[in-house]
Amino acid sequence: MRRVALLLAVLTAAGGQHVVTAGAAAAANCITVDMEVSPEKIDLLTDLAKRFNGSDRAKVDDQCIAVRVAKKSSGEGASLLAEDWPDPKANGPRPVVWSPAASAWGEVVNQRRADQGKKAIAPTGKPFMLTPLVIAMPQPMAEALGSPNTPIGYADILRLANDPAGWGAFGHPEWGPFRLGKTNPNFSTSALNATIAQYYAASGKTSGLTLEDLNLPDVDAFARSIESSVVHYGDTTLTFLNNLYRADRRGTGLTYVSAVAVEEKSVVDFNKGNPDGILDPGEKAKPPRVPLVAIYPKEGTLFSDNPFFTVDAPWVSAKEKKAAAKFEQYVQQPANQKRVLRFGFRPGNPQVAIGAPIDAKYGVDPNQPQTRLELPTPPVLVGLIDRWGQSRKSARVLMVIDVSGSMGEPAGGEGGRTKLDLAKQAAVNALGQFKPEDDVGLWIFSTGISRNDPTDYLELVPIAPIGVQREAVAGKINDLVPTQGTPLYTVTKAADDQLVDTFDAQRINAVLLLTDGKNEDDKNNDLDGLLRTLRARNEGQAANPVRVFPIAYGQNADLPTLKRIAESTNATVYDAVDPKSISKVFLAVVSNF
Amino acid sequence: MVLVALWIRGRIDENGGGGVTVRLLCTTELEAVCTDLSEHADVSVTVEPAGTTAQSLVALPDDQRPDFDAWLVPSPWPQMVDVQRRGKRQLFAEESDPIGRSPLVLVARADREPVLDATPECNGKMDWKCLGAVAGRPWTDLPSGQAAWGSVKPGPGDPTLSATALLVASQASSEFLDTTDYARDDLENDQYLDWVSGIERAVPKLPPTAASPFADMLQQLPTATYDVVGTTEAEAGPGIAGAAPDRRKALTLLYPEPVVTADVVLTAVAAGPNKDDAEDLAGDSDLAAALARHGWRVPGQSSARGVRDTPALPRRSGLPPDPGALVALQETWQGVPK
What pTM did the predictor assign? Predict the structure, then answer.
């Protein structure tokens, strides 16, 4: 069984790149305020920090202040603070200010520190902007449910998820079954909030959720049924939104996902044509063909309230605290709160009215939500995540690991370990994240790895419940040695074939493909053919989708090609260019299952 | 309990650079006042919730001194500390006269106030007594209540932590008990305990923030974090007046009767090294001006936007004369099933 403590300790560490922002380099003799923020607001805070650093307000006792902003997932920040932020070289500088997506993460940190006999480190913080959790649906689907005239609740959405007729029950059999997009609550704030809301709906309550409620057979059955409609999980909602956006461009969005639990801000970004909220150089926002509509559940919802925690730790000096307070005041100023609004968040300063882009043009309603759901008590929260670990949709995963000669190259760092050594360790660790009922198999690939057909890949462990073969899979992984070249396209197609042929609609069917190189197979160089096949298998209302989640491992991995492979199956690629990051990345990939 | 402290050192007074710097401890509700004051007077300021201060002072051994010279907080928090230090050295000198005053108010969602007024429990006049009777009930149980509003959600605050919330709890209790001079045994009555429990059970369980219930309510509009909260006019008046028009229209400010006031006093540490300088601060015109700027009614100072002349303030605060009664009130509210 997946344990919450373990997940909070390790899973949240995944996906948390540390990026020191441009324009915020610490000036000599200034008081440096290092700030770690959740990823969805990195652009906004970078912008505000840059303006603040250049303003007259960036001073304490005539000494200048330099705010440096970096991003870290809320869960990773919580894990690091619980452990006094170890290894600043790897994890980034110890923060003076921490701004996770929601205040609840501060409670998580303090609770975990209390469990270790340590003092609290996250004081109660003041929220400086808000965004409610909503259910985002393609507009025609929302309208089919009666939106905007009929109030829609979680229970209504979830009942539809359970209806075997799917969208046929609403006169749209062409949309196929109801497909729900949800992330993993051990990683993602919106997923945690969505799971809370789901259990409220299952229990018929809007407050006072108890551990007893979670254990009621009806509630459990309801939760399992809902989870069965999930497309796949994952560490961030941006995966769904990016995939949906691409599917929308191809005109197939309605058969990818029917509803996704996301923050309101994400709906605004999507409808602007910027699904991940970040415009890369040269990228131009193009509105989608089919916009999303935010459903504000009639039972109430939860908020990401973006607190500003000035960390109460020995590494934060009184001067840094004063400097942090100056920046917090700056962020709260009406002019800056209007910037917050431009980024799609609701301003925390009530002097600033909620206005564009929080409006109907972008599929959201400034007059909603009308009420909030309560945050369950910490024991219920933990129990709820535990239950989710058991009731989540089971997975059927084929792990396909590259054992080409280049995997034997040194990984860098201490100990002289090879890339394959690190990958083996990461893969074995990740096995612990599967629940016993998940089916897992193991292939390896390299040109000419077998004397018999197929010559380029080898089945080491057939797909079967991991509960009975965890040790066997781990043993086979530990025995891997590097061999020849990289027949990337052949093995991708073969692995996909295998899962399509044995597709199980009750599970998330996926290939986890780890490779450190580019295709080196003269016999098969047909990337376009591969992509066409994969795409055809994943589109349409009758599709039996198999997601391919590649890990681009090491500097020589063909990241652009792997990205195209992932996107052709509505999955996402994971970047482990630095081999030392492979453990974190492996866990992030497994969070999809 | 989490300590939230902000430390701000005032600039050195240009005329008296060698003078004593008074270490002023301010309750959270007065953070903005004290920040302002530190720009004008020679003070160093620490800010924390009154309950946090009180808890540490009650436990302070006789051979230790508080690490501040004076406490700026609504009365009678300093007296409550000394009442609880039974058998130990008294910490505080006499409270100053009130420097700034503010009536307690109810802030309600404008669309919900008429619905509450129309209930038989409120009988045309919403107050804490009737709120306790309807708190937690689905709005659809009340005449013209809407399903989208969920249940009736009061926000009295935490009387063990917040100076304002303690006064709100006292005002509410006085309404229920029909006297301002209540004592510990009055609070042990079953009907009273059920009523308090009804309010406390209906308070939404939200992630903890440093904001007051009123600030949460205003910030999260149009979402009903709370439907009705208790606070001071000093917080709600300027807060509503300065809010964006859509938020302003969404809230109604009510003055329950009889009026109870939050009276800001400055109390020096009795054996403190800077006692005299600290006590002088009570008459400081900068302090009076800062209080007025932030919504407190101060004689001779112009009122902040959103602060009215009416209702006129009574001579006394409307709190029980015995500070021990407020200690008992804290214990009672903390102990009821939530």
Answer: 0.81
